[in-house]
Design a protein that fits this description.
The chain is of the alpha+beta class. 42% of the residues lie in helices and 17% in strands. It is built from 34 helices and 22 strands. Strands 1-2-6-3-5-4 form a six-stranded mixed sheet, sandwiched between helices. Strands 12-13-17-14-16-15 form a six-stranded mixed sheet, with helices on both faces. Strands 7-11-8-10-9 form a five-stranded mixed sheet, sandwiched between helices. Strand 12 and strand 13 form a beta hairpin. Helix 4 packs across helix 31 and helix 22 runs parallel beside helix 27. The longest helix is centred in the C-terminal third of the chain and has 20 residues.
């Protein structure tokens, strides 16, 4: 789906954290399976152990990293009646210790191997994953084998974990789209195991005890109900031997009857939700085939066609009738949900837009879809086969989805299914599924409103004893993790500076037959937009949607579809393509980037849409929360406080857009990273051919914000009546930019304080007390600025207690050195996470672009690794004492008004 930049900001205004581009919220369901790289599939090794455990091993040499995923084929649908969150509760408890590792030992091990581990529960599965340097595979297998049958489930542990999981419920129920999803599940699947969201409820958790959890565990957490997936830089034959050694002795178990999902016909209804989003969202939802249905592949192609940029639904955006659209298809095993989504400005009556969307869907139901869009969708689904190998995480999840959800042997089976889809199948499915007599309409209106009643008792107030700062590991773990990995220089890309000033970085990677290009123009809207023209940067970016002077919007999209490629222009531009189509796709991208169409009619439509929506943005709690943070850290005249308003947008002309483009879009501020199945020489020749004629005029603009004075203590409360939970930031400036002499010491200290499950903040605010579900801290750096921030979410009656506990932990970092084990954990976590940071094309490119943007050398990660390796506890203490000011941290709260 295309979401225009101003819409992204509106949707972000509902979030706790400032994040990159965001799409409309997706319905809560497992990701739709995607096909996978032929190279990975060709070398996959599969086996089923005598106890029934299915093992799939997929080598990928992108990075010296391995990811394991244990998939238990039981999720919320298998929960006992009256206890919809049982699977989710057990997921939490799987991190509370087993016979081989206690809770504190498990969190210590996780930290020392890089702190990349988690789990998630869906209606049909519960999935646990670790990622680590590849030589720790034995360690990961031992952990998963032990907790497959030896997890510790006590009432005492559950009593404390319940507080954290109830905070998770409160967090999610503060999100309007989550509340809509819960209501939609009831409407589409009432009376079936899919009726309840996998999250669970506070009321059910209050009734849950260790006996109930043990019963669910013994029923479903058996090797003959599990899939073990191992992906990464491993030898399949040796890995299979290791799996047999760890898992073969676990006996199989007798499984209960699987839940039956046989929903009754859908009764049409309208669900209305009060929302704190900056824009309204409407939805028309249908029940669709499940991932194991014979119609699944045709349903996926139908969804792709309905989301196409050449389709009638998307056309509502350039026509000025919707801020953004998409068709979302989320397939559970036994049934799926398809939903047409569209966004509208706050204060606008959605009736006309709702009528437009209904009319489009009805036309498709009666007349079918264009044949060329079906073929384009099939090409893109099959091309995804190659792209997934470019990320070890994506590769793992695509295999997991194919095995656990679609019930096929590999993603290649999905490719065969997509190839077999016909236009007649897609049209027949559209005629049957898109029936308004079985549709559920949702309208999320940005009106605030009261927070929902979520029921259940408050979380526990008693505290667990604090964990020791020196955790003793069992010999098998201590031996594996005894030494810190000595820093080794990272490989560097080929680097070129083109005649027009473009910095080109090329990294060949041959894990797939694909190439990705990532481009970034250094810019700063706060400094570069003319006064009184705030908003011109976003309007300029919006207009790249409309193609180039040679290919209009539809022709541009059609050309990309023909190549099974993606490309988009702007200050951040990119392409993804099969290797054979690189030059053709690059030519289209360069055409869009260097010769954007900027049509006058499109400009007027986008401008009016931006004016209509910006008032809602300014009033939204999320925007006001983010602005309060900026105000707390910035002087009154700081450029970062410049604000886009309906008035500034109204003053912008098409000439202003064209002038901004000429001034800000410059090759001498541009970095291009090319990664994939290509040589440096070929990449340079292609980029020079496509972008060599691009020139810059005049002096380079300033793009780095100036230094700012130290912030002082302040408080701000942003009322958000629709939320259940407080979201809290504690923040301060750090009086230096990215070249701060103590930056690495602060990073190591932050790893102890607020990064990962073993951190002091997580242990104190969540594990011991259950006051929060998530909490963390971080340092943020730009060229001339720094900031330190702690974040958490809690029930309003726990906000002050959590703040006091957080600040006590900060002060303790200053008053005494961290322990030897804490220092070891932090250093090991940072050093062992280095290969994980480069386990995807996006991760590699993101690191390079960030270094260039900050003016740092590409060898900076090596300097960082050496500094971290040599770091002392005294250096950490001194850095926190010098730069962190707990008494002067600002507090910004977003949450429900006091009752």
């Amino acid at each position: 789906m295309a979401v225009l930049p101003h819409l992204r900001k509106m949707l972000l205004a509902s979030s706790l954290l400032v994040a990159p581009a965001l799409t409309l919220p997706a319905l809560a369901a497992p990701a739709t399976p995607a096909p996978h790289a032929a190279t990975a599939m060709d070398s996959a090794v599969k086996a089923t152990l005598p106890n029934g455990l299915r093992v799939v091993i997929v080598p990928d040499r992108l990075a010296p990293v391995v990811q394991t995923q244990v998939i238990y084929l039981a999720g919320s649908a298998a929960a006992p009646n009256g206890f919809p969150g049982t699977a989710h509760a057990l997921e939490h408890m799987m991190f509370n210790g087993s016979k081989a590792l206690s809770r504190d030992q498990l969190s210590t091990v996780s930290a020392r191997i890089g702190n990349v581990s988690n789990a998630f529960t869906t209606e049909d599965t519960t999935q646990f994953y670790f990622q680590a340097p590849a030589h720790y595979l034995d360690l990961l297998l031992k952990i998963e084998a032990d907790r497959m049958r030896n997890v510790l489930l006590t009432d005492a542990d559950w009593g404390h974990e319940r507080g954290a999981i109830e905070q998770e419920v409160a967090r999610d129920l503060s999100m309007p789209f989550q509340r809509y999803t819960i209501a939609l599940n009831r409407a589409l699947f009432g009376g079936t195991p899919y009726e309840h969201d996998a999250l669970g409820t506070r009321a059910s958790f209050d009734k849950t005890d260790a006996k109930l959890l043990r019963g669910f565990y013994d029923s479903w957490y058996q090797p003959n109900n599990a899939i073990l997936l191992i992906v990464g830089d491993i030898d399949p034959a040796t890995t299979l031997d290791k799996v047999r050694s760890q898992f073969s002795a676990i006996p199989s178990g007798k499984l209960p009857a699987r839940p039956v999902v046989e929903p009754a016909p859908v009764t049409p209804q309208t669900i209305k939700i009060d929302s704190d989003y900056a824009t309204g969202i409407l939805s028309i939802a249908y029940r669709m085939p499940g991932s194991q249905s014979p119609d699944y592949a045709a349903a996926q192609i139908l969804a792709d066609v309905l989301s196409s940029q050449r389709g009638a639904l998307f056309a509502l955006v350039p026509q000025g009738k919707a801020l953004g659209t998409e068709f979302s298809y989320n397939a559970r095993v036994h049934a799926g949900v398809g939903s047409a989504l569209a966004a509208f400005p706050k204060g606008q009556d959605p009736s006309a837009l709702l009528g437009e969307v209904r009319g489009i869907l009805e036309t498709i139901r009666q007349k079918g879809v264009p044949a060329d869009l079906v073929e384009a969708a099939k090409r893109k689904e099959i091309a995804a086969l190659e792209f997934n190998a470019n990320s070890i995480t994506d590769l793992t999840q695509s295999w997991a989805d194919a095995l656990a959800y679609s019930g096929v042997n590999s993603p290649a089976d999905l490719v065969k299914a997509y190839r077999g889809v016909t236009l007649e199948q897609v049209n027949a499915l559209a005629a049957r599924l898109l029936d308004p007599a079985h549709a559920v309409t949702g309208i999320l209106t940005p009106s605030g409103g009261k927070s929902p009643q979520i029921g259940g008792a408050k979380g526990p107030e008693s505290l667990l004893p604090p964990p020791s700062k020196n955790i003793t590991l069992p010999d098998w773990a201590a031996t594996a993790l005894a030494d810190l990995p000595k820093p080794e220089p990272l490989s560097l890309p080929a680097r070129y500076t083109l005649k027009n000033g473009i910095t080109l970085l090329v990294q060949p990677e041959h894990v797939s037959h694909t190439i990705r290009l990532y481009g970034s123009i250094r810019h700063n809207s706060y400094l570069q937009q003319p006064k009184g023209k705030e908003g011109v940067a976003d309007l300029t970016s919006d207009l790249f949607l409309f193609g180039s002077t040679s290919h209009d919007r539809l022709a541009f999209a059609a050309a990309l579809d023909a190549l099974a490629s993606d490309a988009s222009g702007g200050v951040s531009f990119s392409l993804s393509t099969l290797s054979a189509n690189f030059d053709k796709t690059l030519a289209l991208l360069a055409e869009n980037e260097l010769h954007p169409a900027f049509p006058a009619q499109a400009f007027m439509i986008m401008k009016q849409q931006a004016i209509a929506t910006q008032a809602g943005v300014l009033q939204s709690p999320g925007y006001r929360f983010q602005r309060a943070v900026t105000k707390a850290l910035s002087p009154a005249d700081d450029p970062s406080l410049r604000e886009t308003t309906p008035q500034t947008l109204s003053s912008i002309s098409l000439a202003d857009v064209q002038d901004f483009y000429k001034a800000a879009y410059r090759p001498d501020l541009t970095t291009i990273v090319v990664i994939g199945d290509i040589t440096p020489e070929k990449a340079r020749a292609s980029v020079e051919s496509a972008f060599g004629a691009w020139t810059a005029t005049g002096p380079q603009p300033a793009v780095d914000l100036p230094a700012r004075p130290q912030s002082k203590h302040s408080q701000a409360i942003i009322d958000d009546p629709g939320r259940v939970q407080d979201s809290v930031y504690l923040a301060q400036t750090v009086a230096s930019g990215v070249k701060n002499p103590d930056r690495y010491a602060l990073e190591v200290g932050n790893e102890v304080l607020g990064s990962g499950f073993s951190s002091r903040l997580m242990q104190d605010l969540r594990v011991r007390s259950g006051m929060v579900y998530t909490t963390g801290s971080d340092f943020a750096w730009s060229a001339n600025r720094g900031a330190f921030m702690i974040s958490y979410g809690s029930d309003p009656d726990k906000t002050s207690k959590a703040r006091d506990a957080a600040l006590r932990n900060v002060s303790s970092m200053q008053s005494s050195p961290v322990s030897d084990d804490e220092l070891l954990n932090a250093k090991a976590s940072i050093l062992r996470a280095i290969p994980m940071e480069r386990a995807s094309f996006g991760g590699i490119a993101g690191q390079y672009l960030s270094l260039v943007d900050l003016g740092l050398p590409l060898t900076e990660p090596d300097d960082r690794a050496r500094a971290v390796y040599a770091m002392s506890a005294r250096q950490v203490q001194d850095a926190f004492h010098h730069w962190v000011r707990p008494d002067e941290m600002a507090q910004i709260i977003r949450g429900p008004a006091p009752k």
